[in-house]
Write a structure and sequence with these properties.
Layout (H helix, E strand, L loop, with lengths): L1 E5 L11 H14 L4 E7 L2 H6 L1 E6 L2 E8 L5 E5 L2 H4 L17 H17 L9 E5 L6 H12 L5 E6 L7 E2 L4 H4 L12 E2 L2 E3 H8 L2 E4 L2 H6 L10 H6 L4 E3 L26 H15 L9 E5 L8 H6 L1 H6 L3 E6 L3 H13 L4 E5 L3 H10 L2 E4 L9 H7 L3 E5 L2 H6 L5 H6 L5 E3 L4 H15 L2 H12 L5 H15 L2
Parallel strand pairs: 1-2, 1-6, 2-5, 6-7, 7-11, 11-12, 13-14, 13-16, 14-15, 16-17, 17-18
Antiparallel strand pairs: 3-4, 4-5, 8-10, 9-10
Helix pairs in contact: 1-20, 4-5, 5-7, 10-14
């Protein structure tokens, strides 16, 4: 099967979030399941610098074929006027979305369709698999091409990584999209008088997936449907949740070159050395009597950082420590920085993102916090499980699918892997926090839960097998 993955970022070349990790790991996993996978990307400077063996396609000067660091063949859209901007691929230095984003990502969808139509004389896609709103127009262009050619050019799959980000633009962009006029309607691109790229993907794709089974159910309801729950309920028969995986080549404490001491489930003493190194790096008190909590996240209310900030007095009163890496809402950044200034031996904050530091925090912390209001899949809790760092999460989305609470009955049954709370409320969060402190004091049980967490298998093989099965069902 010839599969074209369409995305806006990819690890290790350009990353703003978990989408890049998925885009970087999925192609190789699909190769192992018999798929001939290629990747289409905008030629952002960081991506173009990391692609080898670049050559322009004959007769198509705006298309470059090359190789990603893992050897996967890729295509880059060479449009400097749209993509040659350093930094964030979606917004400028002021944090404001680029005014021409509609044009930049419409081109991504249009070129995906062209590659299905055979613009590369040596290869054409049978399946076009787009990721998030940035690739949302690809299924629409394929549906329009069906009209032109009188046959289906390629089947399409659209994966929702986060429904809250929808790529919505004013009606004035319609003339630039070069799509049939009747595509702008309730059963098409139209969304409350605007154009929605995410809705286009949901409506026109042959199949829709999202990144965990629980999130697939949640987005069909009003609370988490972000206004598109009706569209998703209408597509329920074509909607499935496929849990993301962890790239063992990148996240593996046994051979991670980014952590100070490598370790496995049978060598948790070396994990404690990672803890000591993290405390020393941030000037925290070198204590081991209470847990060290970590956060690697966008600092937003959606990620539950407001719960963490409000619960800091309880955490500190019990002797805990907190290390934070991320950026986001100014009020939350400011609150955390203030806490670090008042409690420099217990709280440390690094605003921004640093991939190397993210690995050191995941390895060095005792508990990783992901107390999200909603969470399509979550990858940091999967990394934490693999590193024996017990996740503290809300029972929502992919967090509900991957972490088992350390309640007494689960400890007795041998299924506990972390700490889970139900409602997005301070009382529920603090109760989970207290369970973490209580279990930490029982060293033997804590170690058993760590080892069980590390034994979980969230590799990409299972997800790739499900995607490959889905692709085969779409072929004639």
């Amino acid at each position: 099967m010839r599969v074209l993955q369409v995305c806006s970022e990819i690890y290790p070349l350009l990353k703003t979030g978990g989408l890049a990790d998925v885009a970087g790991a999925l192609p190789q996993a699909l190769h192992r399941h018999g798929c001939d996978v290629r990747v289409l990307l905008p030629a952002f400077p960081a991506i173009r610098r990391g692609v080898a063996a670049q050559q322009h396609l004959a007769g198509h000067p705006a298309l470059i074929r090359g190789q990603l660091p893992d050897g996967t063949t890729c295509y880059l859209i060479d449009a400097p006027e749209l993509y040659e901007r350093e930094g964030n691929p979606y917004s400028g230095p002021d944090g404001r979305a680029y005014e021409d984003n509609h044009r930049r990502f419409a081109l991504l969808g249009r070129v995906a369709c062209l590659l299905a139509e055979g613009r590369d004389p040596d290869w054409s896609a049978q399946i076009v698999h787009g990721h998030d709103w940035h690739a949302g127009l690809a299924p629409a262009y394929l549906k329009a091409a069906w009209r032109t050619h009188g046959r289906r050019v390629a089947a399409s799959v659209h994966t929702v990584h986060n429904l809250a980000f929808q790529g919505t633009f004013g009606l004035n962009v319609l003339g630039e999209l070069q799509l049939p006029a009747d595509f702008y309607q309730q059963h098409g691109l139209e969304f409350h008088g605007q154009v929605s790229y995410m809705k286009a993907g949901l409506h026109y794709a042959d199949r829709v997936t999202t990144v965990s089974p629980t999130y697939a159910r949640e987005i069909q309801g009003e609370e988490q449907g972000c206004g598109l729950d009706g569209v998703l309920r209408a597509r329920a028969a074509d909607l499935s949740g496929i849990l993301n995986g962890v790239d063992d080549q990148v996240w593996n404490p046994l051979r991670d070159p980014l952590i100070p001491h490598r370790y496995g489930a049978g060598d948790l003493a070396s994990k404690r050395l990672c803890r000591s190194a993290l405390q020393q790096e941030f000037g925290l008190a070198p204590q081991a009597q209470a847990p060290l909590f970590g956060i690697v996240s966008r600092l937003t209310e959606q990620k539950g950082v407001n719960l963490v900030l409000a619960g800091l007095p309880d955490l500190l009163a019990r002797g805990g420590q907190l290390v934070v890496l991320g950026s986001g809402e100014p009020a939350l950044e400011g609150g955390l920085r203030e806490a670090a200034a008042v409690h420099p031996r217990s709280v440390a904050v690094r605003v921004g993102y640093d991939e190397n530091l993210a690995h050191r925090i995941v390895a060095g912390a005792d508990v990783l916090m992901v107390p999200s209001r909603f969470e399509p899949c979550g990858l940091t809790q999967l990394y934490a499980l693999k590193y024996g760092t017990l996740p503290l999460v809300r029972r929502v989305g992919g967090l509900a699918d991957t972490v088992v609470d350390s309640a007494l009955e689960n400890l007795a049954e041998g299924s506990a892997t972390g700490f889970v709370f139900e409602r997005f409320e301070q009382t529920d969060y603090v109760a989970a926090l207290r369970r973490a402190f209580a279990l930490y004091r029982r060293e033997g049980e804590w170690r058993e839960v760590q080892q069980r967490a590390m034994a979980q298998d969230f590799g990409w093989n299972a997800a790739a097998a499900q995607y490959a099965t889905l692709y085969r069902r779409l072929l004639p």
